Amino acid sequence: MRFGYFDDTKREYVITSPRTPLPWINYLGSEDFFTLCSNTAGGYSFYRDARLRRLTRYRYNNSPLDQEGFRFYIREDDIVWNPGWQPVQTELESYSCRHGLGYTVIEGSRGGVKASQEMLVPNKANCLLVRLSISNESGFAKKLSVFPYIEFCLWDAVDDSSNFQRNWSIGEVEIKGSAIYHKTEYRERRDHYAVFWADREPDAFDTSRDAFIGVYGSPARPEAVFGSGCTGSVAHGWQPIAAQQFDLELAAGESTSIVFGLGYIENSEDEKWEAPGVINKKKAEDLIAAYSCAGAFDRAMEELKASWADLLSHYIVGSGSEKLDRMVNIWNQYQCMVTFNMSRSASYFESGMGRGMGFRDSCQDLLGFVHMIPERARERILDIAATQFPDGSAYHQYQPLTKKGNLAVGSGFNDDPLWLIAGTDAYIRETGDWSILDENVPFDNDPSLAQPLSEHLRRSFRYTTEHLGPHGLPLIGRADWNDCLNLNCFSKHPGESFQITGPSEGPVAESVFIGGMYVKYGRAWADILKHTGLAAEAEAAESSISAVEAAVLDAGWDGEWFRRAYDAYGNVVGGSECEEGKIFIEPQGMCVMARVGAETGEAAKALESVKKMLDTKYGIVLLQPAYTKYHLELGEISSYPPGYKENAGIFCHNNPWIVCAETELGHGDRAFEVYARTAPAYIEDISEIHRTEPYVYSQMIAGSDAATFGEGKNSWLTGTAAWTFLSISQAILGVKPTLDGLMIDPCIPADVKGFTVTRKFRGAVYDITVENPDGVQKGIREVIVDGRRIEGNVLPVLESGSCTKVAVVMG
Ligand code: BGC
């Protein structure tokens, strides 16, 4: 069952019922100011950091769900409704929500009145703009009142939801003209405030929640809206809000629009006040003026659409398949941008209070967006590297506002260092910008410890080289990619962290998965060394890599698949002798991507085992059989009920590893089959089962052991976005940046006759046409560049600004 449809021409997903199985959200903003916006206008705004600079409140586990947001109440006589149905839930005569790239438009109508709520964050601006347009299509004159409403958060979202003894006394606002200023804590240490405004004077306002909603009222029945209107309340403590009232008279056929804004303003210490106790509003007034002039909203929308058209012009496929094209050309890349901005911090499943930017997460996210915004990828790599420790290990997370490593979580996740190589390698392959290696970057955020980035990568590689266990496999530490496989932690007490209980190092527990990573990204490091003239170091690296590769094929090989790990007692995890958790997906994907056993048959066997033992109709589950009880020696993985999350859920992130692995072996049919099984546009028809948004990936789909098999959770913020984009754009369609140029090496289903890709690469445009006359899955017969046949399949790097035709024949 569907709840909407894709409008590919407008690059929108159009939701046609407000009663989606869960709130289906969108992200507005792509640099510093962000708003999450659901299909009924629920959501919240923040500046840079969803924990430390939260502008508006959101209650995640509320019931009913999704109450807070940027709301409009429309009142006509005693009927009150919202353009997006929530929170009053008055039935609408028509409803639609168009989630576009960086904007959302919600339209609802009732009683001959049509309301449209358009929301966006303009490029480079620290504000949300919301235009409400009301048309009277009834044929009669109408008197309406319109009430916008938001609830402020007292900045630090954790403190805001816990420290009530203080917080209920500190709220402060100022009101001037059509603007409401939220200035809690500005009197002391804060140098920032929020401003809510309308582009015309309201008839009335409220800034106290108790006055507008009522102490015992609710957003579904605000007392001011259902009673006698706004009262001009000024919040002192308690819950500051911004609400206004506009009394409108619309003749038959008449329309009107009001533009609202919610902005974030910072003032330096010496400019904070315009008079004692009165905040300096200069910047806010400039912001308001900029967006209050005629045409400003439309211009902001046009600029936003133009920037997205440009971002998406770097990779465009023409496959003849509507679903594939919309995933590759629009939604997958869009999600990559969102994961780049948010890492795993703020979604409808991530509170924005828990995690900052993940070291491994952000490095992997790079793989999906580096072709769109290489400059920001560069900056991100340097920020991430600055949170590395001098020995090559790394803080597992850092806060986006401060860019400092997060002490509470610390380090000891032994895959982290290698992801820095993966991210930097992808950046250099995309851009050819070798100068990044010479950038001086602090260790542990301490400028006195700065070293060139190349030294950071060297220490990443060395960290693994020097942390091998009894079988010559890398030690796992607190966990590897699978945060929930905690072999050294032994957490016994409810409430304590599974990951950071126990020692961060153990001399015995080893990871076959990190072994595969070391081979794959170690080789990438060795290639970088060769390209920078460090042949001897490259050779030494290769010999360490070969030793680990041999260990993977020996102690890491189970006979039909790769084992997962050795636990702290030296027992096999993910082997045939295990009663539960016999086979895991991660080492099969990573080791085959690293080509371990590709020539000797183990790789093919491993992928056959995946198909035989882990495949389900909704995707490949993470392990089988699921753990049925808690294993102290395995940790969080066994804490989940069977079929959920890492305990045999369909963890979407590592499905594309299998896609990439299959293409290493030339299996185009199978690679595409795995790709399509979890790709959102391909499963739109089962939205009532899948429940999360049909335009983006979710982190996890409940596996076959779960009662809710097929149900998605944790949508949006997942490494799945980057990895699936990589798997389809590079592994299947085969357009791969390498250190020497763009390689064309498709691996496609045999019945695909051909496709086109337009790829912007290092400033030049490559118009690539691939034909597959013999119906092969992999293999290149010839490559013709601008009419001339070239040797091999790596396209020459062309002059920036040039445009080249490339004709590729498979066979
Ligand atoms: C984390 C990733 C991790 C994955 C698997 C996600 O929640 O953000 O870093 O690799 O879970 O455990």
Write the layout of secondary structure elements.
Elements: E1 4-7, E2 12-15, E3 25-28, E4 33-38, E5 43-47, E6 54-56, E7 71-76, E8 79-81, E9 94-99, E10 103-110, E11 113-120, E12 127-136, E13 142-155, H1 157-160, H2 164-167, E14 173-176, E15 179-182, E16 192-198, E17 204-208, H3 209-212, H4 223-226, E18 240-250, E19 255-266, E20 273-275, E21 278-279, H5 282-292, H6 296-311, E22 315-318, H7 322-342, E23 357-358, H8 359-369, H9 374-385, E24 397-398, H10 416-431, E25 440-443, E26 446-452, H11 453-465, E27 510-511, H12 512-531, H13 535-554, E28 565-566, E29 572-573, E30 583-584, H14 585-593, H15 602-614, E31 615-616, E32 619-620, E33 623-624, E34 650-651, H16 655-664, H17 668-678, H18 687-690, E35 698-701, E36 712-715, H19 720-732, E37 735-738, E38 741-744, E39 754-761, E40 764-771, E41 780-785, E42 788-789, E43 794-795, E44 803-810
Helix pairs in contact: 7-8, 7-19, 8-9, 8-10, 8-19, 9-10, 10-11, 10-12, 12-13, 12-14, 14-15, 14-16, 16-17, 16-19, 17-19
